[in-house]
Amino acid sequence: MLTDQQIISVLNSTEVATAIHIGEKAVIQTANEAMLKAWGKDQSVIGKSLEDALPELKGQPFITMLGRVWREGITISGTDTPADIRVDGKLQTFYFDFEYKAVKNESGKTICILHTSTNITTRFISKQREKKLMDELAAINEELQAKNEELAAMNEEFATTNEELTVYQQKLQLLNLKLTESKNQLQFAIEAAEMATWDYNPATGYFSGNNRLKEWFGLVPEDEIKLSDAIANIHPKERSKVLSAIEKAMQFSSSGNYRN
């Protein structure tokens, strides 16, 4: 049989935090250096119940678990399990993979609880950080996908608008072509009838006439003609009628046609 000192030496030879508890209150029979370090305690806790040695565990599930293991002779384990432990005078949250295993004698009675624990706080925090980064990346990818879908919809809308614009441009070109043809036809009719035509813009006061009109007034095609000069060359008897007709044509209520 191993002596208590030999058992402690064996337990200290492993890096796995290990303790042996006795009774329903989980009195600490022995604990290796790795377990004492995980608890933030020293050898003074040996012989105390786990609740007395680590009062901060009160209200946490571990004392109750150890009681069940002692009474029922079962094994309870956990992974990534948080535990609030006071280390260096500061209450901190650590994460452990642990096992409480009932050790029985030949008659099946529980004689002690083998408590093993691995501090996986660094791994757990790394996993949480990785998960957070993955969640953020997933959110960014989701947002990017939404933006791409929005962009695709906009491109489709632009494509439709461009098609409509092309149709409108074609219609405008056709109208311009028809307008040019109409102007050409009108000009041909005017020249064929040897008509004198003129144009007056009341907003700018600009007056212009075709070559036939200028010829009537004894001007060459390059000469400019003013409305006042044109009116001055009208026979006095007809001048008032022309002025009246021009004034009437410029009224809002008229059709805009000059009639004399």
How would you describe this protein?
This protein has eight helices and seven strands. It is of the alpha+beta class and 260 residues long. Among the domains are: 4-119, Beta-Lactamase; 196-249. A five-stranded antiparallel sheet has the order 2-1-5-4-3, sandwiched between helices. A two-stranded antiparallel ribbon has the order 6-7. The mean pLDDT is 85.
What's the layout of helices and strands?
Blueprint (H helix, E strand, L loop, with lengths): L3 H9 L4 E6 L4 E5 L1 H7 L10 H4 L8 H11 L2 E13 L2 E15 L5 E10 L1 H72 L5 E4 L4 E4 L1 H6 L10 H6 L3 H14 L11
Antiparallel strand pairs: 1-2, 1-5, 3-4, 4-5, 6-7
Rg, Å, rounded: 53 Å
Strand content: 15-25%
- Uncertain runs with pLDDT below 50, 5 residues or more? none
CATH class of the domain at 4-119: Alpha Beta
Total beta strand runs: 7
The largest sheet has its strands arranged as 2-1-5-4-3
Protein structure class: alpha+beta
Q: Can you tell me the CATH architecture of the domain at 4-119?
A: 2-Layer Sandwich
Q: Assign the CATH superfamily of the domain at 4-119.
A: PAS domain
